[in-house]
Amino acid sequence: MNDLSLPDVASQTQATLAPLDRVGMAGIRLPLQVAGQAVQARVEASVSLDTPGVRGIHMSRLYLALEALAGEELTLTALQALLQHFLDSHQGLSLSAHLRVAGELLLKRPALVSPLSGHKAYPFEIALSLDPRGFHVELMLELGYSSTCPCSAALSRQMTQRAFSERFAGQAPTWEALHEWLGSEAAMPATPHSQRSKARLWLRPADPLQAPDWIELVDRCEAALGTALQTAVKRADEQAFALANGHNLMFCEDAARRLAEPLRALPDLAAFKVRVEHEESLHAHDAVA
């Protein structure tokens, strides 16, 4: 039985079989380390099938090469070497190799005022390819934040003015009376609408072997927005968050421009793209930029 030769159907040839741009596997689960954090990654690995007449590739070779990365810190240098291994294992068949790694960075973030903290997930994706033109890298990071509509805020302020006029028309109220009224529900007849929003950043490093610092990138972008989503909070944190939203009224256009500023300041980026989505609480559709 040990001498039995097992058939390799994938290596069969037929003159009419056309080449394929990408052949491989998707949905592979792999434990990795990213920025010092354990990540359960989802991986897609593929190579081109450039030789006419060949029926298929050797998928097990891609899978076993990926397994060698299990538990290791993810670096662009290691991923370039992995893609080269894909090609070496498919000599005569493939001219390009491709890899997509997706997961979530789980970072501990402090509350705004209190000593509380909690973990927040930041989805990321790394897309890579190696072909005769070179090594190509694109990174994606997703951030969550709150956005308060400037138009809705202006309309709410107008309603407060109207309520003030109705309450104190023809009067000269004392400081105490004004202070008491401002602390009542009557002084806030309307509130501006806010929504949970998200930004996706696509980044192309100037050096394809040098990724930006993920945590520094999160810090810079959240500081630019001013209203990052919170984790554990006390009332003081919630009040500070309300204040931050009031000081950072944003249309989706504003958010996109805010995020572009810290990205332009990063010297190790060759190019970037930003997409923001404000999941409207007023409309049944979203605002995007």
TrEMBL record:
Entry annotated with the keyword ATP-binding: no
An example molecular function term from Gene Ontology annotations: GTP cyclohydrolase I activity
Assigned keywords, A-Z: Hydrolase
A Pfam family it matches: GCHY-1
Keyword Thylakoid annotated: no
The name this protein goes by in its record: GTP cyclohydrolase I FolE2
Originating organism: Metapseudomonas otitidis
Organismal lineage: Bacteria, Pseudomonadati, Pseudomonadota, Gammaproteobacteria, Pseudomonadales
